[in-house]
Automatic annotation (TrEMBL):
Protein name listed in UniProt: ROK family transcriptional regulator
UniProt similarity note: Belongs to the ROK (NagC/XylR) family.
Domain of life: Bacteria
Stretches assigned to coiled coil: none
UniProt-listed InterPro entries: ROK (IPR000600)
Organism: Clostridium thailandense
């Protein structure tokens, strides 16, 4: 199937791409979108049907005349694997061209998960799930990996990702390791970029021009897409927004500057600040040091109005809101998606962030906020699989 897709002509690719993005579409509407003559379109669609890339998918609603056949991408014969490698977990999904999740698996990582152990686990699970679905490797277009930057995307290397529990995650040739282990083409990008792609094409951002995606977890990860183009940062890092300065005399950040959003609003920063405060507290009943993976303890304390925890979490949310107001003034997006464990697990963090934004956003941008987006925790993996499909069916794929 990879070879068949690689040999498609531009008209075939254009037609397949439209059908894929629309989900289901009639031949009449497809003709309007492509501008092809009916004779040409019929020839193109016949070719795509013969190659088992598209099929009749349903019947359109009647508008008074005869109901028209709707076409969609094939449900079998071509599949994609999406992998979300975060700092604490890995999620794997297998989808067909209709973006239906056929299988998914998730496992958590501790300090024993070196890159080698992680890749072994990923590839073993992929082999297992393909076997369960009776899918051969020849039917798999590729493996898309959304992971933590900074990256050398073309060479498939994770350069120096921070905050992995295992310290050997540096200059990891993740693309080569996966391809060597399982003999399926692999493509990588940072996870925030794959997530924003998923939301733009099929999620909350569908039919919008410009959206921003912010993931609030161990670190603050962000991505921006405008007119279908991902706005890329240096080394494809995902923390450019995280290192926007909101207080020039503030907390020292891991990047060396003072007062970055990251130094207040991430799980890592809040845990460090909480542990420092409790350590310096003269109260003999101070809580024991909280580890990064136990961050929910701090959120739980804040929900019970613990003074230190509430102050630290509120300050993190407030500074995130200030940063968002700055970002919106610069980019003027239509939609901002906030997601990640801090958004999912702590309503007050989300509410205070949004309230702070509106309090200082005097320009009255018509921006809409979404809590979690359309794909919630699946966005990175779904976007990673879409990244693979896009490499095959976009006319500018080279």
């Amino acid at each position: 199937m990879r070879e068949i897709l690689s040999k498609l002509l531009d008209r075939d690719l254009e037609t397949l791409n439209i059908i894929h993005k629309e989900g289901q579409i009639t031949k009449k509407n497809l003709q309007v979108k492509t501008g092809m003559t009916l004779t040409t379109l019929n020839r193109v669609m016949k070719s795509l049907e013969d190659k088992k890339l598209i099929m009749e998918a349903g019947i359109s609603e009647s508008t008074g005349g005869r109901k028209a056949v709707e076409y969609g991408t094939a449900q079998t014969g071509a599949y994609v694997i999406g992998v979300d490698i975060s700092r604490t977990y890995v999620k794997i999904i297998i989808v067909n061209l209709r973006m239906i999740i056929l299988k998914e698996e998730k496992f958590y990582m501790d300090d024993s998960f070196s890159p080698e152990k992680t890749v072994d686990k990923i590839t073993d699970l992929i082999e297992q799930k393909l076997l369960e679905l009776s899918i051969s490797k020849n039917e798999v277009l590729g493996i898309g990996v959304g992971t933590v930057g900074p990256l050398d995307r073309k060479r498939g290397i994770m350069i120096s990702p921070k905050n992995f529990f295992n310290k050997s995650w540096s200059n990891v040739a993740i693309k080569e390791m996966i391809e060597k282990k399982i003999s399926i083409p692999c493509f990588i990008d940072n996870g925030a970029n794959t997530a924003v792609l998923a939301e733009y094409l099929f999620g909350k951002g569908k039919d919008l021009k410009s959206i921003v995606y912010i993931h609030c977890g161990i670190g603050i990860r962000s991505a921006v897409i405008n007119d279908g183009i991902i706005i890329r940062t240096m080394n494809d890092s995902e923390d450019a927004f995280a290192h926007m300065i909101v207080d020039s005399n503030g907390e020292r950040c891991i990047c060396g500057n003072k007062g970055c959003i990251e130094s207040y609003s991430s799980i890592d920063a809040m845990i460090k600040r909480y542990n420092l405060r409790t350590k310096n507290n003269n109260n003999n009943n101070a809580n024991e040091e909280v580890r990064e993976e136990e961050y929910k303890k701090v959120l739980d304390l804040a929900m019970r109005n613990d003074e230190f925890a509430t102050e630290i979490v509120d300050k993190g949310a407030e500074n995130l809101g200030i940063g968002l107001a700055n970002l919106v003034r610069i980019l003027n997006p239509q939609l901002v998606i906030l997601c990640g464990p801090l958004i999912k697990n702590y309503k007050r963090y989300y509410d205070m962030c949004i309230n702070t934004f509106h309090k200082i956003n005097y320009l009255n941008n018509a921006v809409v906020f979404s809590k979690g987006g359309g794909f919630k925790e699946d966005a990175i993996a779904i976007g990673a699989s879409l990244m693979v499909i896009e490499k095959y069916i976009r006319k500018d794929r080279d």
